[in-house]
Amino acid sequence: MRPHLTKLEDTMAKPDRVYDLERRQKCLEDEITKALSCYPSDDPMIGDLKRRLLHLRHELDRQRPRVVGRDCLH
What per-residue confidence (pLDDT) applies to 4? Predict the structure, then answer.
């Protein structure tokens, strides 16, 4: 279930795919933080988690709608 949205966020709700990717990104970031407290930073497992996070970030960039700044439109 989605957390409570502000009025602006509610009117411009994110597509489910973007919401899911952002949730997964947060989980991976938390997992990396926990792993770094237990393992050395050069551990292959941490490298794999960081690679997965990078892949998620690229996918988020592709999925998010392009926003055109108002200053560019005259």
Answer: 59
